[in-house]
Amino acid sequence: MAFLTAPLERRITKAVKVGSVTVGGGAPIVVQSMTNTDTADVDSTVAQVAALHKAGSELVRITVDRDESAAAVPKIKERLLRLGIDVPLVGDFHYIGHKLLADHPACAEVLDKYRINPGNVGFKARRDQQFSMMIETANRYQKAVRIGVNWGSLDQELLTRLMDENSASANPQPAQAVMHETIIQSALLSAARAEELGMSPHQIILSAKVSQVQDLIAVNTALALRSDYALHLGLTEAGMGTKGIVASAASMGMVLQQGIGDTIRVSLTPEPGGDRTREVQVAQELLQSMGFRSFIPIVAACPGCGRTTSTVFQELAQDIQNDIRTNMPVWREQYPGVEALNVAVMGCVVNGPGESKHADIGISLPGTGEAPAAPVFIDGEKRATLRGDNIAAEFHQMVRDYIEQRFGANAS
Predict the structure, then answer these.
(1) The pTM is what?
(2) Nearby residues of 275 by Cβ (< 8 Å), 6 or more positions away
(3) For residue 402, how many other CB atoms are within 10 A of its CB?
(4) d(C-alpha 267, C-alpha 276), whole Å
(5) C-alpha–C-alpha distance, residues 70 and 76, integer Å
(6) What is the per-residue pLDDT for 308?
(7) Residue 60 bridge partners (DSSP)
(8) Which of 27-41, 112-126, 198-212 has the lowest mean pLDDT?
(9) What is d(CA 137, CA 115) in angstroms, rounded to the nearest whole number?
């Protein structure tokens, strides 16, 4: 019998160094995020960059939109380094990026990458001049650039020309197809111009950011077929809550499964007062769920049914997941390899013992009407049966002990 497999074969792109991080070239897919603070507010920006990095963001983008924000960038970098945080910083430039980089050389020097939008660099005769100025600055300081084309800020001259050519053709294509082609051509023409100005392709990352799932899949699949530049993936406005999470996972998941994508951002709209680091967690969970990377131990838990009227297994699973996420910044250093750990917290006898045996450490809690006993399985073998009122606390300690024994300094 022949078995179908789905190998995750990555498309090999040009490797780009962004500070200490490699994007493309077969390197692990990089998770990045962006602050929503006023960059001129050094204190709040440093705090948010630090929080995003602690959550696992490997690149952090900051807005550089005026003189005050450009002047703050070196201070932000200095403060982060004093805190021991050397995360690469990406400057997000629109409209006057050429001027800000020229007027603030210290900003240009400490940033690790410049984000350039071809549609917002300039208009008509100034476009090429101002784009050239930004590329020349990147070359001077040997910085990477992300040429990021956005659906909502396309090069209008290019779009008009392609629309006119399409209208005059014998077989005109739908307007959406022309929009897709405009995005792709804008990115590729800009990259070609950057290379003409002396930039290495190993300094260039492309992105084609759109708002709809099918558009992201279509544009990035086509862009990957027409170039070997490193690619950044993401919906430009994913949305809020479950809508944003589902849309990001559905779109990027389809593209990633084709081996396309070298760095991703999940652009979630935070709820008022919400935690900005949520977008980092979702990006990590997407890559880990697809088998590309491991960031944090997996806690498998059953969804519950009429057999599990008790909420003990839900509370225990949540408690362990929260404990793991809270401690991971320290555990990554203290327990190398701990991100590969699998924990199972199951609610009844139907799947509980089987799932627990397949985890590194798992517990099968008693369901409704079952004997009040909870077998614990470690490395596929039953090691204990917990009873009484302290089952949760005892299993929690067993997980901690297992981590120490398997991943600690004295582990065999």
Answers:
(1) 0.90
(2) none
(3) 18
(4) 10
(5) 10
(6) 75
(7) 33, 89
(8) 112-126
(9) 13
Residue 12 exposure: Cα atoms within 13 Å on the Cβ side: 2
Q: Which residues of 49-79 are buried (b: 16+ CB within 10 A; e: fewer)?
A: bbbbbebbbbbbbbbbbeeebbbbbbbbbeb
- Single-letter amino acid, residue 188: L
Alpha-carbon span 298 to 399, nearest angstrom: 12
Which residue do the tokens 């078995």 mark? 3
Query: What phi and psi values does residue 80 have, to the nearest 5 degrees?
Result: -60, -45
Q: Would you state the structure tokens that stand for residue 186, as one six-digit string? A: 């804008």
In angstroms, the CA 343 to CA 399 distance is: 8
CB 34 within 8 A of CB 62: yes
3 state SS for the chain: CCCCCCCCCCCCCCCEEECCEEECCCCCCEEEEECCCCCCCHHHHHHHHHHHHHHCCCEEEEECCCHHHHHHHHHHHHHHHHCCCCCCEEEEECCCHHHHHHHCHHHHHHCCEEEECHHHCCCCHHHHHHHHHHHHHHHHCCCEEEEEEEHHHCCHHHHHHHHHHHHHCCCCCCHHHHHHHHHHHHHHHHHHHHHHCCCCHHHEEEEEEECCHHHHHHHHHHHHHCCCCEEEECECCCEEHHHHHHHHHHHHHHHHHCCCCCEECCCEECCCCCCCCHHHHHHHHHHHHCCCCCCCCEEEECCCCCCCCCCHHHHHHHHHHHHHHHHHHHHHHHCCCHHHCEEEEECCCCCHHHHHHHCCEEEECCCCCCCCCEEEEECCEEEEEECCCCHHHHHHHHHHHHHHHHHCCCCC
pLDDT at residue 2 is higher than 60: no
The answer on pLDDT for 288 being more than 80 is yes
Residue type present at position 301? A
Q: How big is the CA angle at 398 (ends 395 and 399), to the nearest 5 degrees?
A: 90
Neighbouring C-beta atoms of residue 235, cutoff 10 Å: 24
pLDDT band, very low/low/confident/very high, at 80 (cuts 50, 70, 90): very high
Residue 159's contacts (CB-CB under 8 Å, 6 or more residues apart) are 178, 179, 182
Alpha-carbon gap, residue 96 to 101, rounded angstroms: 9
Q: Judge contact between 376 and 384, C-beta under 8 A.
A: yes
